[in-house]
TrEMBL record:
It is found in: Cytoplasm. One of its GO terms (cellular component) is mitochondrion. It comes from Hortaea werneckii EXF-2000. This is glycine--tRNA ligase. Pfam families: HGTP_anticodon (PF03129). One of its GO terms (molecular function) is ATP binding. PROSITE patterns: AA_TRNA_LIGASE_II. Homodimer. Its EC number is 6.1.1.14. GO terms for biological process: mitochondrial glycyl-tRNA aminoacylation.
Length: 730
């Protein structure tokens, strides 16, 4: 793992993109933004409605929003064919994209190893992310530790709130995640109803254990009353919003049992999902593997502020692994226990109106926005509008949040995400943290439904405030005022000589509590003191949680002072990317099969991020091709173009086909005309068309296309066409 992390953080050449790119995004339109209902959404939210987190704070959270439909006949490939998930997953296994970790030992759920194609694809996506965000937006790159002390995550709220609900089968001891249990049983009953009505039931390749459980749960096809069917469908659509008590009530009401044993289950209980460990050998320093990268960035705030000469706005960015001890891993890379994240923390002055200096450059770009009001009305169709209009009407709260929504969409477009399978969904009121101003998810449609892949939240001043309170460390910005101003404020004055004997060791705690009282509370204390001669104040750090003070010990007075400095806690806009989810969705989006031959699969990765850029194919095994092959390999190495040589004895058409499955965008063929000094042929993966020219022309074209500076259409217009060897062989 450390090798992969080091590679991810290593510097690489930046990628440049053609000027026409942003213009295409500016004119973004779609007629098929919502082919499936919101009930097919997998979200990142796994807390109860009373949680103090926004979903973006813990972005790779996983909970099914209703029934994720099979969609075998609805969800389409890049070329409009029915998507066959079994064939797609077979390709990923055959071409060694990924597999479950530790397979010789029986494998471990929720952990995956990446093979060369997916590891290189991830590196390409991360390179582009660094260029698109860190370099272009002048962000401050950080690398913080994965081991995080207990106190940090206690202050942030993770110790208390980073949890899922589970049920236990008391007879077998089996642990079941509550929402998954409800979903699986209800889905199985709905399938049984379909069978009883004579309707077609779609099937996909599932975990054998899950299929076994569903089979046991179903037993026979049973037709449901229409009212029961409607209730079940509504239950699945609203399951994501249920608290632990809600799920307990559903389990009891609908007699939901362990599908494997048929036993009743115990009521849901909350289980923390962080991996706990300890620092050192004594066990006195408990710690966790981090559930997100953000906390390290918040605690580095003062150092970053000094680095930026105390100038805001500023943004930090971190790419690294986070961990979640998922109770029930499923859906491949969509719900895992170890995952790569890329997070930005953009710090801004709250009195600036959260305006962004570059907002004008994106104001006219259109996005598909599924607002809260539309969702409340039962709709799932996004409205396509400019971000300028969205901010002006307060659908999106502020310019900085809107700017990052656009940047997220442009990033997705750059890596090859299908724009007809992308939408931005606003958080519902019960998903929002109490401190959050606005939150949006970038959701991508794949065969599992709408998947939250990026959370973008206006987190206000929450994180810096809780860490400042917990540690006493100054986590604010201080800046001189243009003109001094007179300030009247309530002060609590503690007489330490008189309070010492009474408060003893709690004196410092009481003093800190008095200092932290709000102006409103200090004014109320003054009134109470004048009326009763005593006052009770909360002291969270004391065992009793409060203390009573009389007027001999403390006094409250309104004082006037001249203020020359302004102190404030910055607000934070946080885009948070789940890289594994993006990669999986991307692979589905670029997958298709050749017309008339479903066995010939293609992965149409963009040349800018393709795991391998060029396939080098000698026409036949012939020693005379050796010197040309060596020259070509050296030239490709010099240009930093990744390539693969296929000298096997099968036909050239078959060699092209099996490497199309790896997503290699270009093929250079060495043939007998090459021996006569007539150059090489260059093949385009998607169209299978070829051109022929000198090695210099061919390599120039490859380099430009891999940097996004030219397209195949550009190259085919300026280089002579060539009749495909592929068509001859086939």
């Amino acid at each position: 793992m450390s090798t992969r992390v080091n590679r991810i953080f290593s510097s690489r050449n930046c990628i440049n993109f053609s000027p026409s790119f942003t213009n295409k995004a500016r004119n973004f339109e779609t007629t098929s933004l919502h082919p499936f209902p919101s009930s097919g959404r997998i979200s990142c939210r796994s807390f109860s409605a009373s949680t103090t987190f926004s979903r973006a704070q813990v972005p790779v959270r996983t909970k099914i929003k209703g029934a994720a439909p099979t969609m075998a006949s609805e969800y389409k490939t890049l070329k409009g064919q029915d998507f066959d998930r079994a064939a797609f997953e077979s390709l990923l296994r055959r071409k060694v994209f990924l597999w479950q970790s530790f397979e010789p030992y029986g494998a471990v759920k929720g952990l995956f190893d990446y093979g060369p194609p997916l590891e290189n694809l991830e590196a390409g996506v991360i390179d582009l992310w660094r260029d698109h965000f860190i370099r272009t937006e002048k962000m401050l790159a950080l690398k913080c530790t994965m081991l995080t002390p207990y106190d940090v995550l206690k202050a942030s709220g993770h110790v208390d709130k980073f949890a899922d609900y589970m049920c236990k089968d008391p007879k077998t001891g089996e642990i079941l995640r509550s929402d998954h249990l409800i979903k699986d049983v209800i889905e199985t009953r709905l399938k049984g109803d379909k069978e009883a009505r004579g309707e077609k039931v779609e099937e996909t390749e599932e975990d054998p254990k899950k299929k076994k459980k569903q089979a046991k749960a179903a037993k026979t096809a049973v037709k449901l009353d229409d009212s029961v069917k409607k209730e079940y469908e509504h239950l699945l659509a609203t399951l994501d919003d249920c608290t632990g008590d809600d799920m307990g009530a559903l389990i009891k009401k609908h007699d939901i049992r362990n599908p494997t044993s048929g036993n009743e289950v115990e009521p849901p209980v909350s289980v923390n999902l962080m991996f706990q460990t300890q620092i050192g050998a004594t066990g006195k320093e408990p710690a966790f593997l981090r559930p997100e990268t953000a906390q390290g960035q918040f605690l580095s705030f003062q150092k970053l502020l000094e680095y930026c000469d105390s100038q805001l706005p500023m943004a930090s960015a971190s790419i690294g692994y986070s961990f979640r001890n998922e109770l029930s891993p499923r859906s491949g890379l969509l719900r895992v226990r170890e995952f790569l994240m890329a997070e930005v923390e953009h710090f801004v002055d709250p009195e600036s109106g959260k305006k962004h200096s570059k907002f004008a450059s994106v104001r006219d770009i259109k996005l598909p926005l599924l607002g809260r009001q539309t969702q409340n009305a039962g709709g799932s169709t996004p409205t396509v509008m400019t971000i300028g209009e969205a901010v002006d009407t307060k659908l999106v709260d502020n310019e900085t949040l809107g700017y990052f929504l656009v940047r997220i969409m442009l990033f997705m477009q750059k890596i090859g995400i299908d724009m007809n399978k992308l939408r931005f969904r606003q958080h519902m009121a019960n998903e929002m943290a109490h401190y959050a101003a606005d939150c949006w998810d970038c959701e991508l449609l794949n065969s599992y439904g709408w998947i939250e892949c990026v959370g973008c939240a206006d987190r206000s001043a929450y994180d810096l405030s809780v860490h400042e309170k917990a540690t006493g460390t100054f986590l604010k910005v201080r800046e001189p005022l243009k003109e001094p101003k007179k300030v009247e404020e309530w002060q609590a004055n503690l007489d330490k000589k008189k309070s010492g004997p009474k408060l003893k060791k709690d004196g410092a705690k009481v003093e800190a509590a008095l200092k932290n009282l709000s102006q409103e509370m200090k004014e109320k204390c003054s009134i109470s003191m004048e009326k009763d001669g005593k006052v009770e104040i909360p002291v969270p750090d004391m065992e009793a949680g409060k203390v009573e003070l009389d007027k001999d010990i403390v006094s409250f007075a309104k004082e006037t002072r001249m203020e020359t400095m302004r102190e404030y806690t910055p607000n934070v806009i946080e885009p948070s990317f789940g890289i594994g989810r993006i990669l999986y969705s991307l692979m589905e989006h670029v997958y298709w099969t050749r017309e008339g031959d479903a066995a010939r699969s293609v992965m149409s990765f963009k040349p800018t991020i393709a795991p391998i850029k060029v396939l080098v194919v000698p026409l036949q095994k012939d020693a005379r091709f050796g010197p040309l092959l060596q020259e070509l390999e050296q030239r490709l190495d010099d240009d930093a173009i990744t390539f693969k040589v296929d000298q096997s004895g099968v036909s050239i058409g078959k060699r092209y086909a099996r490497n199309d499955e790896l997503g290699i965008p270009f093929g250079i063929t060495i043939d007998y005309e090459s021996l006569e000094g007539k150059g090489f042929t260059l093949r385009d993966r998607d169209s299978t068309k070829q051109v022929r020219s000198s090695v210099d022309d061919i390599l120039e074209a490859v380099v430009k296309m891999c940097k996004g500076k030219e397209s195949w259409d550009d190259v085919s217009k300026r280089l002579p066409a060539f009749e495909s060897q592929e068509s001859k062989e086939e």
